[in-house]
Structure formats: structure tokens, C-alpha cells
Write a structure and sequence with these properties.
CATH class of the largest domain: Alpha Beta
Structural class: alpha/beta
Radius of gyration: 37 Å
CATH topology of the largest domain: inorganic pyrophosphatase (n-terminal core)
Distance between the termini: 54 Å
Length: 556
């Protein structure tokens, strides 16, 4: 349940975001956080245009994070924060960590956070079967501190940081006279309280003796051991228990897997890693960040039960306008003011669609309905969105509700709406230094009518000369844009806000004829017009005037 509550929800507009799309995402995320107390994060599916950047800067708001794909990523799954360990910890300690955390795999992590290897329950159990190799403790380069910890022992003589790195392990059960024949230099000898046995082991060159059953060690033995460089460790365990336990003191570094590790990055999409997981027998897989640092583990079970990203869509409801991967996401809500070309959802969602000039007007209503106070910055963004979408109430999409909302919001934000609008439009139509591509995609949307795919871009400006100067550049770019987006027809609106008129540039087989049919204009037969455009006085709205007319004409 806690994990469910922690899931964040993205609030996001369409792929070529305009001011309404960005501002509505920011303001609706703010409202949802205030009402639910949960994590709602505004996002954008494309680049911020000049007008929107002006708005965000004016009110001191950060632009939302760019999210180009909402397929489920590893980061969206519950990553188990299994703590990384040093590669020199003992098998016993590793086993205890596994039991305490109910895990079967532990990562060994370097100080800089990079992954060194993995140790599994299987790796540890295999060590218990290796009973015939009496040199394995030294082969594993076991530190005395590990032996002391595992046997719950005390260091009598020597250094805990030193390593047992050569020789075998044996129990001195025989008569001291016989011990001379099987103790070799550098061995580790487990023995009891017999002075003669202890002395013999040291004299035969043992590197370490482990004295069991809490037996005392005489001053003479300590002195000789000190002189010969022999480590003495004392434990309360009997020799049988000490012999059984001592292999558990070996470091995990000797047994862990270091090479050919299968790791995933937190940004990886789960539909791309499922096959890899399915073909491997591992139960857990390490997750790294983009710099290769260890973050945690995910299990096969978690991956199979992964849920899609939670998303709220604002200012659109069609799949071809939505962020990539929307079919994999869990759509929670749709808030929009466009025609219905609705995205298919897996389950019922909250869907609010009103015939208003702007999504921000709907969101303003929702603030009022929820009784949430609109802060000045939020009011500024909502007002800017309405001014932008309605072209300062000149667009036929504008309703009395839009104008009333914008004027109320302007008051809260402390702006003079007409003066502010001119500054905002001026920033939006500042096309100097922009490439043909940037101009073309500044405000571009895709639509479908039957089997025909149509793209419509629009530039609105107060400056007729500016529109005139970019017209040949747009015409030049149109064919490229049509092929790039696999469209049948492309139209581009050069809209003059002051004269409330549009020059419509047409590209594609039959595009010009379709526009002339839609707006009942006569083809220019004088031979003077060389450009593929139709002049449309009184037309400023793509959504309410252009698209419906084109679609009606196409269906006829």
C-alpha cells in the first residue's frame, strides 16, 4: 500500500506544447498536490517555445521536465534498496545480512559506488560442500578479523588486519610427537588447552593457532608466538564447532561473481529488458545509474508485476498528439477543450472536456470548485494560457467564460492584461535567429480525417512584415516536413493578430484545392499568384475554424 501511495503521477500536454499545454500542466499538478497531498509532477512532451518561455520567466517559474516517452522504466518499479557491502566481509556475515533482509543476492560495492560483484545464497551453500580442500581458507586470502568475528573470538597475539594467505587448516588432535609430521610452515592449527601442542604448532612454523574452549594461553606461549610471528586467537567454541565454522570466515570476494554480470540502468524500459530476464535463472538483478553506480536490486517478480507510469493528459485527447509510449501508461485523467479523438484507456478515467477557448479556463474552474486559493504566480500562468489560446479574446473559440476567467486571473496576478498580452505575443513572434525547422514546429499538430493524415502548423504575430519575411522559408520547408512526419497534406497558418486574418500555405497532392473548397475561395487564374497559399480574412483559429472546414471538405 505504501508503495502505491509513493507512485508519482505525470501531468503532461501534447508533443508540440504551446503556452496552454505547459501552463495547464504546471497549474493542474499544483492543484492535484494541494487537494490529494500526493506527488503530481508537471512535464512537457516537447520544446518550450518563445512565448511560453517569456511567460515562465515573467512569473519566475521553472519549465517542466522534458519527458519524451512514458513507457515503464526500471525506475518506476519498486527497486529493493539492498545495501551494498565490501567484498572482504565474511560468508557468515553475508548469510546473516541475507536472512535479516530476506534476500538471496547481495551486491559487493566499491567505495565510489560502482558494482564489484554479486554473492548469492547458492554461492554460499556451495562452499559447505568443498570439504576436501584444506587450503581453501588461505586461497581465499582470509583476514584474521573475519576469523575473530566468525568464531566470536579474541585476538591474543598478532594483528587482526593481517591475512591468512598460505598454508592449510588442520586440527591438532594427535600426540605432539606425531604433530611434527603433518604441521607445515604457514598452517593454521585448531587446538585445545595442551601446552605441548600449542608449543609444537608454533615451533613447526604455523602462522596462526586457534585455542578452543576458552583455554588459557601461558605467558611463555605468548612470548614465543610473538617472537615467531604466529597469530594466536582464543575462542570459547570447542574444536569441532570451530572447525565447522571457520570456513564461514572466508571473504565473499573469493566466491562472488564478478564477470558477465547482468545489470540494468534505472532509465531502461522494461519491455526491452523482459526478454533478457526471462532467459536468465537469476532471481535478482542489480540496477545502476547512468554513471554506473549501484542503486538497488529488482526481482523478476517485481518486473512481471510492473505497472505503467501514471499520467494525466491536459490540452489533448488524441493518441497521435500524445507523448510516445502513452499506450503503456496508466492514464488517470484527461482535461481538454478540443474535439474528441479520444485515446483508448484500459479502465474508466476522469475525463473533463468543455467547449471553452482554453484548457486553463477549465483548470481555473476546478480550483474554484475545490476551494483552493489561486496564488499570483499560478494566476499569471493560467491567464497567459487563456490570452494565448484565444489571441486576447479575438479568436472565435473564445467564450465569455474564457474572458471572465482571464480578467479575474490578471487581477490576482497583478498584470494589465492588454499591455501584458502585447509583450507576450511579441516574445512569441520573435523569430529572429530561428531555423526553418524551429519556426515550423513552434506550434504544430497532427490530425487524421478518415485515412488521410494532416499536419497543421501556425505562427501568430502582431507584425505583418515579420510574417511576410518568413513565408518563403516556410514554403521551402513544407515538403520536407510532410515527408518527415509521413503526412498526406500539410498546412501552415501565418496568422496576423491585428488584422485577424491568415495566409494558409498548402503542401501535398490536392492540398491547395482542398483549402479552396473548404473556404469557398476561387483559384487565382490571373497568373499572378505563384505561391501555394489561400488568403483567409477573419480566420485565426486552427481548432475552431480551419480544422473543421478542412475535414468537412475532405469528407465531401
Amino acid at each position: 500500500m505504501d508503495q502505491e501511495l509513493k507512485r508519482k503521477t505525470l501531468v503532461i500536454g501534447h508533443r508540440n506544447p504551446d503556452t496552454d499545454s505547459i501552463c495547464s500542466a504546471v497549474c493542474y499538478a499544483n492543484l492535484k498536490r494541494a487537494v490529494t497531498g500526493e506527488e503530481y509532477i508537471p512535464a512537457r512532451a516537447g520544446h518550450v517555445n518563445g512565448e511560453t518561455r517569456f511567460v515562465l520567466d515573467y512569473f519566475g517559474m521553472e519549465e517542466p521536465a522534458l519527458v519524451e516517452d512514458v513507457r515503464t522504466q526500471v525506475r518506476d518499479i519498486e527497486i529493493r534498496k539492498t545495501k551494498g557491502v565490501a567484498d572482504n566481509i565474511s560468508l557468515k556475515r553475508a548469510w546473516n545480512i541475507m536472512q535479516e533482509n530476506n534476500v538471496v543476492t547481495i551486491p559487493a560495492v566499491r567505495e565510489d559506488g560502482t558494482l564489484e560483484g554479486l554473492i548469492t545464497v547458492g554461492d554460499i551453500t556451495k562452499t559447505y560442500m568443498n570439504i576436501y580442500d584444506s587450503s581453501i581458507l588461505s586461497k581465499a586470502n582470509t583476514q584474521y578479523s573475519n576469523i575473530i568475528e566468525t568464531l566470536e573470538a579474541d585476538l591474543v597475539i598478532g594483528t587482526a588486519d593481517a591475512y591468512f594467505s598460505q598454508g592449510k587448516v588442520l586440527i591438532a588432535a594427535a600426540n605432539p610427537d606425531l604433530m611434527e609430521f603433518y604441521i607445515e610452515p604457514h598452517d593454521l592449527v585448531i587446538l585445545g588447552n595442551r601446552y605441548e601442542s600449542q608449543l609444537c604448532a608454533i615451533e613447526m612454523g604455523a602462522d596462526c593457532i586457534i585455542v578452543c574452549e576458552g583455554a588459557g594461553v601461558s605467558m611463555t606461549i605468548k612470548k614465543i608466538a610473538q617472537e615467531r610471528g604466529c597469530t594466536i586467537i582464543a575462542t570459547t567454541y570447542d574444536t569441532y564447532t570451530a572447525a565447522r565454522l571457520i570456513n564461514q570466515s572466508m571473504p565473499i570476494s573469493y566466491f562472488m561473481t564478478r564477470e558477465h554480470l547482468i545489470t540494468f540502468e534505472s532509465d531502461d524500459y522494461i519491455d526491452e529488458i523482459r526478454d533478457v530476464m526471462a532467459n536468465k535463472r537469476h532471481r535478482d538483478f542489480p540496477i545502476l545509474d547512468k554513471d554506473g553506480r549501484y542503486l538497488g536490486m529488482i526481482s523478476r517478480r517485481n518486473l512481471l508485476g510492473a505497472k505503467g507510469k501514471r499520467v494525466v493528459l491536459v490540452d489533448h485527447n488524441e493518441k497521435n498528439q500524445a507523448v510516445a509510449g502513452i499506450e503503456n501508461a496508466e492514464i488517470m485523467e484527461i482535461i481538454d477543450h478540443h474535439r474528441l479523438g479520444t485515446i483508448q484507456t484500459m479502465s474508466p478515467v476522469f475525463f473533463r472536456n468543455q467547449p471553452l477557448g482554453c484548457t486553463a479556463t477549465i483548470i481555473y474552474q476546478m480550483y474554484q470548485e475545490a476551494g483552493v486559493k489561486v496564488e499570483p504566480k499560478i494566476a499569471g500562468l493560467l491567464c497567459s494560457a487563456i490570452v494565448s489560446d484565444t489571441l486576447l479574446f479575438r479568436s472565435p473559440t473564445c467564450t465569455p467564460m474564457d474572458e471572465m476567467a482571464a480578467r479575474s486571473l490578471a487581477e490576482i496576478a497583478g498584470i494589465e492584461i492588454e499591455k501584458y498580452a502585447m509583450e507576450m505575443f511579441g516574445a512569441g513572434s520573435n523569430l529572429k535567429g530561428k531555423s526553418d525547422e524551429e519556426i515550423f514546429y513552434q506550434d504544430f499538430k497532427r490530425f487524421t480525417s478518415g485515412k488521410i493524415a494532416i499536419g497543421v502548423g501556425q505562427i501568430t504575430s502582431l507584425n505583418g512584415d515579420e510574417l511576410e519575411s518568413i513565408r518563403p522559408r516556410v514554403i521551402h520547408y513544407m515538403e520536407n516536413a510532410r515527408q518527415e512526419n509521413s503526412l498526406d497534406l500539410v498546412f501552415f497558418m501565418l496568422t496576423n493578430i491585428l488584422t485577424e486574418s491568415t495566409d494558409l500555405i498548402c503542401e501535398g497532392n490536392g492540398a491547395l484545392q482542398l483549402a479552396e473548397k473548404a473556404f469557398h475561395t476561387e483559384p487565382d487564374e490571373s497568373g499572378e499568384q505563384t505561391e501555394p497559399l489561400v488568403r483567409l480574412p477573419g480566420v485565426v483559429s486552427r481548432k475552431k475554424q480551419l480544422i473543421p472546414a478542412l475535414m468537412l471538405a475532405e469528407q465531401e
